[in-house]
Amino acid sequence: MTINNDNPQYAPDRNPGNPWAAGTTWAAAALLLVASVLAFFQGIAAVANDETFVAVTADYIYAFNLTTWGWIHIVLGVIGVCIAIGLFIGATWARILTIVIASLSIVANFLWLPYTPWWSILIIAIDILVIWAVANWNGDI
Q: How far is CA 110 from CA 13, 16, 75, 125, 135, in A?
């Protein structure tokens, strides 16, 4: 007896995906959407209230022009919303950009370890989880 591989009944499941990855990717997309919308509104607030913000930590002073940071937040918020929508529809480009952004976030938070160690470690762990989920998700639920 020969097996007909053209028959869907006998076709092997080539890429079953990971249900944990799918759920985590949807959660990551939702978090990215909310964070991006909030970043957009933070940017609008910063542009509307143009001041200089000074933060002093041990041996290091940050001085930020809020208009510049406001526009950066607006642009990143719009990009983040687009990527989140792409994740919700299962677009490959969104998965790639999510991995790129999460990787950059890991590097940035590694650099911030001396200043905010617990927060940086938490964000690095979440970024690793997001990268794992997006890399292991096949786009089907």
A: 40, 34, 24, 11, 22
